[in-house]
Structure formats: C-alpha cells, structure tokens
Design goal:
Structural class: mainly alpha
Strand content: under 5%
Order of helices and strands: HHHHHHHHHHHHH
Helix content: 55-70%
Shape: flat
C-alpha cells in the first residue's frame, strides 16, 4: 500500500497568525521562519560555502595581522564604522518581512467586512512587495473569493480555488482539470504545479492500491513531466514498474532516484540503498550476477559508493569492477 502525497501549500512560512506574534516569547519565529535560521543550519551548509567563509576569515585575519600591534585597534575602529550600517540593514530587513505580513493578516478582516475590491488592490501590491505570498494557496484563494464576490472577473484565480476545494474533497480528477485551467493562464506558478503533480501522484496511488499498477505508472509519469526529479513520484513509479515486471524500466527509475540525492546536503540513505537494490535485482533478472552483486554490495555498504561519497553508479555500459570482492 502506498501513502498519499501532500503538496507544499505555501513557501510563505513566515506569517502572522494572531496578535500573540508580537509577544517577546514568540519572536524566535522571526529567526526560524523569517531569516531561515535553525539549530541544524550548519548541517545543510555546503562545502563550497564553508570553504568560502573560511577563506574570507583567513584573508581578513592576515590583513589585520599585517598591521602588527595596531591590528586590534584598526579592527575595533572598522567594526565601529560598519556596525551601525549593519544594524540599519537588519532593521530594514525586519520591516520588509513584518510589514507585508501585518497587511496580509489585516486582509482577513477586510474580506469579512465585504471590502472585496480593497482586498484585491492591496493583495496585488503586497504580492509584488513580498513575492512568497504569491505562492501561498491561502492567499490566492482569498484573492479568488474577493474577485468573485467583488464582481471582478478572474477566472484563473477562481479555477485555482476550485481546484483546492476539489483536492481537499479527494476529487482528484476534477482538481486536475481546475489546476490545468489555472496553469494555462499562469504557467510559472509552482504552487499550482505542485498541487497538480500531487493530484497525479494521488490518483496513481489510488490505482496502485487497488492493484492496477500499470494505470498507476502512467499517472506517476504525468507527475514527472511537471517535476522530473520529484522523489515521491520516482519512488512510486519504481514500485509500479516492479509490480508489472518491467525490471529494466524500474532500474532506470532507480538510477534517477539515486541521482536526485546528489542535490541534497544530507542524502537519504534509504532512498540510495533501495535504488541500488532495485538495480541489483534488474541485473540479476538479466543474468548478470556479477554486476548484481556489486550493486547489492553498494546498497548495504556506504563505503563502496566511493571515497568521495559519490553515490551515482557508473554508466551501464562500463564493465563492473570487483575490487576486493570474492564470491565463493
């Protein structure tokens, strides 16, 4: 049984839900949601950024050490010059984050007062000021309601809102139609693309769970047409192809699944391992036990991925290398 997928409803995580936001105990959200800081921040910093920061620190240290005994005094003077400007920049950043979210919070009150045209005008302005709101499904649905009740025709927004409504009712076929209509007007909306891809995946999940993997595979492929590296769609497609005994196709899906992890700072070990297992099974089925053994070994031994943690397997046309492996 496959689980249903859940779309990303918004990238505007930093939002003001109620007046308690302005209590001092709630301002940690400004760091976590607004500025993107978290305790595991350094776990996701790439090696390139780490080397860049280290290089800058070493260069600045060398510059100030070159002044000898006067280096510390010069450093303090420079810090006093830049600190006020840094503070001003930080204040501007806070204002640019908080102000549009305060306005967005007030829009709920305006729409409750039936001030629909005012809601539309303000929404258009803060959408330009704070673009993440344009990728917030709640923000877009509110604009759709304001356009509908304010007699300002916007069929695209209405289609998106109807798509959300049908999606929440698990009417994926109808939701698919409405999201397609919205994307015909705004093909760059990745929140609508996310909902459409998830709609395809969930339709495929329904067919897979009712033992119709061949139909399910077609829906997973539709989702991959939207997001070629969608991990859930790739994984579900892999399982569907195994279920219909298309092992060569499942091996290709497994390879793509492994390749998606090259973009992650913390790769998923389970995804990589399962990718290798499915590739191993495909090789075994094609009477290539040597390559099958190599791939299986890679699924259980991280060190065999290689010393650089490069978990992308060799191209299929290369001969397998059995270094330090003996098969009795």
């Amino acid at each position: 049984m496959l689980d249903r997928s859940t779309p990303i409803a918004s990238v505007a995580d930093f939002s003001i839900g109620d007046v308690r936001f302005f209590q001092s105990t709630s301002w940690d959200r400004l760091l976590v949601r607004g500025l993107g800081y978290s305790n595991n921040f350094f776990a996701f910093v790439g090696r390139g950024w780490g080397c860049t920061v280290s290089g800058l620190i070493l260069c600045l240290s060398a510059i100030y050490l070159s002044f000898g005994d006067r280096g510390l005094d010069i450093l303090v003077k420079d810090a006093n010059k830049f600190a006020p400007w840094f503070g001003v920049g930080l204040i501007i950043l806070f204002i640019s984050l908080i102000t549009p979210n305060i306005i967005n919070f007030q829009l709920d009150a305006l729409i409750a007062q039936a001030k629909y045209r005012q809601v539309l005008n303000i929404s258009n302005v803060i959408g330009l000021w704070y673009p993440p709101l344009k990728s917030d499904s709640r923000f877009l649905c509110r604009m759709a309601r304001a356009a509908f009740y304010g007699n300002v025709p916007n069929l695209a927004l209405v289609s998106f809102a109807k798509g959300i409504e049908e999606y929440n009712l698990n009417n994926y076929f109808e939701a698919e139609r409405y999201f397609q209509q919205y994307l015909n007007d705004d093909s760059t909306s990745f929140v609508a693309k996310g909902y459409l891809a998830t709609t395809y995946i969930n339709q495929g999940v329904n067919y897979f769970n009712t033992r119709k993997p061949e139909i399910a595979a077609n829906y997973f492929k539709e989702a991959l047409q939207i997001f070629p590296n969608h991990v859930e769609a790739l994984y579900d497609l892999l399982l569907a192809e195994v279920a219909i005994t298309k092992f060569e196709d499942s091996a290709k899906s497994a390879q793509k699944l492994i390749e998606t992890q090259r973009y992650s700072q913390l790769p998923s070990l389970s995804i990589i391992a399962q990718g290798y297992i499915h590739k191993s099974w495909a090789k075994f089925r094609s009477n290539d036990p040597v390559r099958a053994w190599n791939l299986y070994r890679q699924s259980i031994d991280k060190e065999s991925w290689d010393e650089r943690d490069n978990y992308i397997v060799e191209p299929e046309n290369e001969e397998p290398v059995l270094s330090e492996i003996s098969v009795d």
